[in-house]
Automatic annotation (TrEMBL):
It comes from Branchiibius cervicis. This is Fe-S cluster assembly protein SufD. It holds the Pfam family SUFBD_core. InterPro entries: Fe-S_cluster_assembly_SufBD, SUF_FeS_clus_asmbl_SufBD_core, SUF_FeS_clus_asmbl_SufBD_sf, SUF_FeS_clus_asmbl_SufD. Residues 1-26 are annotated as: Disordered. Belongs to the iron-sulfur cluster assembly SufBD family. The lineage of its organism: Bacteria, Bacillati, Actinomycetota, Actinomycetes, Micrococcales. Residues 136-362 form the SUF system FeS cluster assembly SufBD core domain.
């Protein structure tokens, strides 16, 4: 028997927030396919698309190659290599299958798969860096496979800049005993659109950490999925996002606990400011009957800085076995705390500086979990710029 647990929510009634609903089917039953024709063009009434402005995504649903591309640059420390494979070769690996039309289109029409390999037993002393930049408004499909060899340790930073209508498939394989930290950043220009399906397979006793930083773009919608292949795997999904006026930033995570004695932690935090700023977080965890002795927790927090912003937060937990160490989830959305602002101003701190301190405090615990200075420092500088821009717009 499957037990569907509704969200635990503590909500400030003055904030605009949409409560979660129990999904109408198990995540295990949702369609996956390599065939684009198996997915109808979304109309916005589907459960997985109901928050998304699908009317603005038409080019990314078309079953056709575009010839568009992003500029690519990389930094590869010793132990990391780049190569390519065909889409069919990627399919034959059996690591991931597209779960919606956009991902199926991207996989079918990417023209090939870039492959980043980290050698077995390698311990990279500096991050692998891949930077993708859109130089003009065009439809682009991207495809990247990251493979981390047995007992290797690495950090990979994948950053997105510029302007594009971009849809990508990213597949990660973390082999036995390996340890990977993957950082993905979306710092697009205001008009850009970015859809992504990110899939990770965590093998026996492997550790995987994905840090998603989303700050720019008109629409960014990322699906982050984890499955296990063997006991002892550990997955941590961390997300930080900041939405301005008119932005739609959507993050969906799915942790499929399909092996025993594995763990997962999902923590996403976001701030919103400006009219029609919209964020969405949907967190799904499925604990299958075979996943005995697992432990999982997911958390989403949203800070609404101005009127006119909206945060939707939907945690879902589906349990098929009672033999687990622990499982839980929590979600909250609240307005900016004027009392904190008053307290700081009363001690001589200017309003702009006080607002930055409050927002920095809101993000402090997740920033501590990230723990990578070269990621954290630019992130906090970018958030300060967002706050400053919001203050100027409201002046």
């Amino acid at each position: 028997m499957s037990l569907l647990t509704p969200e635990k929510s503590h909500v400030d009634p003055s904030a605009q927030v949409s409560a979660g609903v129990i999904p109408d089917q198990s995540r295990a039953e949702r369609r996956t396919s390599f065939d684009v024709a198996d997915f109808a063009i979304p109309n916005g009434r589907e459960e997985e698309w109901r928050f998304t402005p699908v009317d603005r995504l038409g080019p990314l649903f078309r079953d056709e190659a575009t010839g568009g591309h992003l500029e690519w640059s990389e930094h590869l420390p010793q132990g990391a290599t780049l190569s390519t494979m065909s889409v069919q070769e990627w399919r034959d690996l059996g690591l991931a299958i597209p779960a919606d039309r956009a991902a199926a289109v991207a996989a079918a029409h990417s023209g090939g798969v870039a492959v980043l390999d980290i050698a077995a037993n390698a311990e990279l002393t500096e991050p692998v860096r891949i930077e993708l930049t859109g130089v003009q408004r065009e439809t682009v499909h991207g495809h990247l496979l990251v493979r981390v060899g047995k007992h290797a340790q690495a950090t990979v930073v994948l950053s997105h800049h510029g302007i594009s209508d971009y849809s990508e498939v990213l597949t990660v394989e973390v082999q036995d005993g390996a340890n990977l930290t993957l950082v993905t950043t979306a710092e697009w220009q205001d008009e850009a659109i970015h859809l992504g399906q990110y899939d990770a397979v965590v093998r026996r006793d492997a550790r995987y950490r994905h840090i998603a930083v989303t700050l720019g773009g008109a629409i960014v919608r990322l699906n982050t999925n984890v499955t296990y292949d063997g006991p002892g795997g550990d997955a941590t999904l961390l997300g930080v996002y900041f939405a301005d006026a008119g932005q739609h930033l959507e993050h969906r995570s799915f942790v499929d606990h399909n092996a025993p004695r594995c763990t997962s932690l999902v923590t996403y935090k976001g701030a919103l400011q400006g009219d029609s700023a919209h964020t969405v977080w949907v967190g799904d965890v499925l604990i299958r009957a075979a996943a005995e002795g697992i432990e999982t927790y997911e958390l989403n927090r949203n800070l609404v800085l101005t009127d006119g912003a909206r945060a939707d937060s939907v945690p879902n937990l589906e349990i098929e076995t009672g033999d687990i160490e622990g499982a839980g989830h929590a979600s909250s959305t609240g307005r900016f705390d004027d009392e904190q602002l008053f307290y700081l101003q009363a001690r001589g701190i200017p309003e702009d500086a006080a607002r930055r301190l409050v927002v920095r405090g809101f993000f402090a615990d997740i920033v501590a979990k990230i723990g990578i200075p070269e990621v954290v420092d630019p992130l906090m500088e970018a958030i300060d710029r967002e706050l400053a821009a919001g203050s100027e717009a409201g002046a």
